[in-house]
Amino acid sequence: MNEKFYVTTAIAYTSRKPHIGNTYEIILTDAIARFRRFLGDDVFFLTGTDEHGQKIQEIAEKEGIAPKEYVDKIAAQIKDIADMLNISYDHFIRTTDEYHVEAVKKIFKKLYDQGDIYKSEYEGWYCTPCESFWTETQLVDGKCPDCGREVKKTKEEAYFFKMSKYQDRLMQYIKENPDFIRPESRKKEMINNFLKPGLQDLCVSRTSFTWGIPVEFDPKHVVYVWIDALSNYITALGYSPDNKGEMYNKYWPADLHVIGKDILRFHTIYWPIMLMALGEPLPKQVFGHPWMLFGEEKMSKSRGNVIYAEDLVRHFGVDAVRYYSLHEMPYAQDGNITYETFIARYNSDLANTLGNLVNRTVAMINKYFDGVIGDNSVSGEFDADLKQVCETAVKKVIKKMESWHIADSLDEIWKIVDRANKYIDETMPWALAKSEENRPRLETVLYNLAESIRIIAGLLQSFMPDTATKIAEQIGSEDLSLESVRTFGQLKPGTKVGEAVPLFVRIDAEKKLEEIASENEQEDKIELAPFKDFCEFDDFEKLDLRVGKVIECERVKKSDKLLRFVLEVGSETRQILSGIAKYYDPADLIGKNVIFIANFKPRKMMGMESEGMILSAEFDGKLTALTTIDDIQSGAEIV
Length: 639
Known about the structure:
- This protein is of the alpha/beta class.
- Helix 15 (406-427) packs antiparallel against helix 17 (439-460).
- The longest helix has 31 residues, at 339-369.
- The model has no long low-confidence stretch (mean pLDDT 92).
């Protein structure tokens, strides 16, 4: 083909380490990128991290670190996972990268200057995890319609993008480009649920938090997620409104955005409209892939059903994880994973079927012909069918990969694997080896098997690159190019094979599941701080522990740590300064009962007197002020 091919994943949000359900996307995209290189295309593969927003700022504050320090840690984890999984990305963008920050400022300014962005005020319901605003009618049972979590009433000044201005133009584009949104069911969802009812103008700045790219001409605003995150697909190529750059001119428009079905609206409505406003071409296609579920449920830490890629790799190896992720995810429906199903697929497809085929074939060539592949001059009744299956599979894999049917492509490769295993049973090489006169036929049989395996290895490069390399080494072939696998019979007679080393060792499911369960139990165990030395009861009795009701609470000026409390303690009040500012919004504490030590000597802090100490519990970087279960009279003694 020798065409340019620009493919991207959605950039991963740096609120937490991704699980295998999140990581599936980058494995999928890597298989597509590698296959396009296999076809001869000039591929540019982009992935990266989305690092701004209120959610990240709140998490960082709770951990007592700067947002940049927090995202540096998570971004490194995400990049490490990609490298561990042998992802062949060409560029890893971070939205905190300086070139991206500067380009976003200019994009925002351009849209504002041409009248597509205007200042107004937003009042509605906000979901922090989804970073989405909702109207009262959009809520489901008073909660976020996307994730089902609590929402907060929000009112703030904001800039808005005129979405409705471009709605008809986008509808026309989708009509004229029927493959723009794939699968077809996702396209219908976008049209019927969002475009036909009419688009509302989009909030594109915030003032209630600071962790974001500042609006250059109005610094109290930060650029909200949509313009910041979505524009990474062009800023990574060097795009800026005043200088598009060589890479942008070469690779844009993107040939394919690979994204999860849950963020399809942002990529097929918000993003194309932004590009229209900028006067830039739209991506050629957006593929909204399904979810990988744990059994029948979406993965969630709160449900305790999260599986991480590094744990799977540690137990089963990189290519087994890649194979399962790609094979078990249908084109349009959700797939699922459990350790039980993973082990079953590993044993059946990788150990018993593929691994056994390669191992038996190489072992027989070593045993019967001192490791040298002979010629294929004596054909038999089963040969033609084996050759046809191989050549047909190559064509079908190419065709299915053109429409992103990845699991189906692997099924086509496994048709060769299954047919070659059947060919062994049909030709019975061990029986042919008993007679000298059958040795020429035995040479042909083993040649055909080795050639089938070479074609399998060539096709597997995009999906299981390390396994493909190991297979090629075992059969002694260096040529796994597309041209060489299109036609059966390209393996050179006289090729020396390697040692027959098992590719995948069969797993004892019961033992492995016990091992995994034991590891999970160990991870769940809490490591507590060591207990202090014993003290006498008389020492404890010296402490005067009381209940105080918070009637005032505010941050102490010029201090990042201190909150100033005024506690009602019976008929009197106490002022206490406590270093828990990074863990609480002061307004959330008013009206709460807290437990404090009442007989500490007053001491000066930041020029103010503190008359006691509020008690808190701390574990793993999180802190909680101690309160009473039931309401009780302030001033009550703790006994």
